[in-house]
Amino acid sequence: MIRNSVAVVALGLISLTACAGTQESKPVAQQRDSVVALKIAEIEDLGPVVTDAKGFTLYRFDGDRPNQSTCDGECAATWPPATVSDENFSVDGVDGIGSIVRGDGSRQLTVDGMPQYRFAKDTKPGETKGQGLQGKWFATGKSGERTQLAARTGVISGLGAVLTNNAGLTLYRFDGDTAQPSVSNCDGGCAESWPPVYVEGDQPRVKGVDPKLLGTVLREDGRKQLTVANWPQYTFKNDGKPGEAKGVAVAKWFATATDGRKAQQNKAIALTSATVANLGVIATDADGMTLYRFDDDSADPPTSNCQGQCAEQWPPAFVDEGFQVQGLDSALVGTIERDGRKQLTIAGWPQYLFAGDRLCGEANGQGVGGRWWATKADGTRAGR
Fold this sequence. Notes:
4-stranded antiparallel beta sheet, 33 strands, globular
């Protein structure tokens, strides 16, 4: 196994015949003073990931097999293979390096056997726009594992902010488990109804959650299960889409709040936050629908300039007297009078929903017209 800062070089190419369907995997041998082809970078929220020599994130594809790429043609145009021009390359901090020869004769790098790619829409080092696309593309960890958030934050109407898996399904904790020490007592048929949330890599990460609350417990099958505040985490088989929390009707099972505690009913919550798409933690309404701000408005004084047809496409986010805020600094939250009702403001900016968003967690209004932006928890524009 290749260790940190040890230079490696691929051995000689073996050409493929036109009818050969398998790509040849080549080991790498030691050689010093060669050009660094792969290195490690710390990416916010994801942790250490593999990059190319210029610092661009590299990805692995679940549709591939060890030492064989299935991404060609249009796929390879969107996901350019990470190749080296000759055999004289080295790596810094990456384990399990190898290479394969593609059908066009180019040499593609592999990490733990998995072929490596860039994403065409990543335009600068540190970007991870390809992360999680199609549920099959993931930034590569330093030993070849998928790098992804162990969980996300979502919103359940009446419960407020909760934890979800990467598909947006609610996470739960079980009173039959223990937290000191962390022990899961849900196996067999229980685990079929309540699938454990598994973790790849070393340290689990969740946007918007204190890393000190996150950990893992080793299950009998040898896999690592996510813990939050030491409580093992699960999904529920009867939840079919984001926003559902049917498991809270089952005795001893509770949706997990973002601090690891049991999520409690609070129908007064009108403003909270959730992890939305690849935008990070975004302000949402009580149902988890993304909130937006409009560049043509003003924050000082708070003024809405979206009226008529604009307001049909971008419905104002109205709130009632006595509404409560969760997951945002309440000092940033206010209202303006509009049509006899109160429109929510964050950091002075009037807030809107988008008619094109149908499900919680969607952000189809992001960047529309170059003037509409999802609102971050501090009121600033997401993605800018």
